[in-house]
């Protein structure tokens, strides 16, 4: 079936979801929209985020997308419901912190690290309500400006912030939910701070849900050969170049 898989995020973080999608569905064509100009989403209001994400959805639809993947926990927790109401004909798949994965695996001390918006969101409260074991301790932490530092590739500041936020949980946390797609790009740095903690993200789960939706709607590509990838970055071409490098490394 013709039509691209549209994917977006407030910049480079969505590459972690895109990579899993391309592994699972290699024959599809992808249009990845990096909204680096508006990074970070995590400190914006609901109104601002709805306007920003609606503009991106319009762009992706105008450019032939058959499904839209919100590769961003902040945009999903904030806008998914409103976007579904606004675009009832569009198939959306969102990304939420992998709290259910921590629950399914019976972890006992779980850090949820996410953006300021996501960590305070109603959606995260709902997920915690539905997927927390009685004997599971949850440590809900805001990653402050971590997503922005990752976007800007500020390595020293990233490490400083990680130590400040996480040092007291060394040998305490058995698991950590990476509740922002940018954080999946710095798994090595997080592991260096929390060597005995299992890191969980929802990237694989998102790609499986996209496959299910495409199958259900009979929209899977039946191409045998590798599909195409177009990356748009509204801030700079250098970030597009960096995106291809990150995709290689992931
Ligand atoms: N990558 C995003 C997320 O998953 C947003 C980061 C940001 O722009 O604050 O939440």
Summed up:
The chain has 250 residues and is an alpha/beta fold. The protein is 45% helix and 18% strand. It has helices at residues 15-24, 46-62, 73-86, 99-104, 116-120, 122-130, 146-151, 155-166, 187-193, 203-216, 237-249; strands at 4-9, 30-34, 65-70, 92-93, 109-114, 137-142, 175-179, 198-200, 229-233.
Structure description:
By secondary structure, the chain is an alpha/beta fold. Helix content is 45%, strand content 18%. It is built from eleven helices and nine strands. It has helices at residues 15-24, 46-62, 73-86, 99-104, 116-120, 122-130, 146-151, 155-166, 187-193, 203-216, 237-249, and strands spanning 4-9, 30-34, 65-70, 92-93, 109-114, 137-142, 175-179, 198-200, 229-233. β7, α9 and β8 form a beta-alpha-beta unit. The radius of gyration is 17 Å and the shape is globular. The protein binds D-glutamic acid (DGL). D-glutamic acid (DGL) is lined by residues 9-10, 13, 39-42, 72-74, 115, 118, 147, 180-182.
The unique ligands bound to this protein are: D-glutamic acid
Number of helices: 11
Order of helices and strands: EHEHEHEHEHHEHHEHEHEH
Strand content: 15-25%
CATH class of the largest domain: Alpha Beta
Q: How do the strands of the widest beta sheet line up side by side?
A: 4-3-1-2-9
Largest beta-sheet characterization: 5 strands, parallel
Instruction: Write down how many β-strands occur, each being a DSSP E stretch of 2 or more residues.
Output: 9
**What would the average pLDDT be, to the nearest integer?**
96
Features:
binds D-glutamic acid; globular; alpha/beta; 250 residues; 2 domains; five-stranded parallel beta sheet
């Amino acid at each position: 079936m013709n039509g691209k898989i549209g994917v977006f995020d407030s910049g480079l973080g969505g590459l972690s979801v895109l990579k899993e999608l391309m592994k699972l569905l290699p024959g599809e064509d992808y249009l990845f929209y990096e909204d680096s100009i508006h990074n970070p989403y995590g400190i914006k209001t609901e109104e601002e985020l709805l306007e920003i994400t609606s503009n991106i959805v319009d762009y992706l639809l105008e450019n032939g997308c058959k499904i839209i993947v919100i590769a961003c926990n902040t945009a999903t927790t904030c806008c998914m419901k409103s976007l579904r109401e606004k675009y009832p004909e569009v198939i959306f798949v969102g990304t939420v912190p992998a709290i259910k994965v921590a629950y399914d695996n019976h972890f006992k001390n779980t850090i949820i690290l996410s953006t300021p918006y996501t960590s305070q969101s109603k959606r995260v409260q709902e997920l915690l309500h539905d997927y927390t074991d009685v004997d599971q301790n949850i440590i809900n932490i805001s990653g402050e400006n971590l997503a922005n530092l990752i976007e800007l590739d500020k390595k020293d500041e990233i490490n400083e912030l990680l130590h400040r936020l996480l040092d007291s949980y060394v040998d305490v946390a058995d698991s950590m939910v990476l509740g922002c797609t940018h954080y999946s790009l710095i798994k090595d740095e997080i592991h260096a701070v929390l060597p005995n903690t299992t890191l969980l993200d929802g990237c694989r789960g998102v790609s499986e849900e996209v496959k299910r939706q495409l199958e259900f709607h009979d929209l899977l590509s039946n191409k045998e050969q590798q599909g195409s990838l177009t990356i748009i970055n509204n801030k700079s071409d250098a970030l597009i170049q960096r995106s291809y490098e990150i995709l290689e490394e992931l």
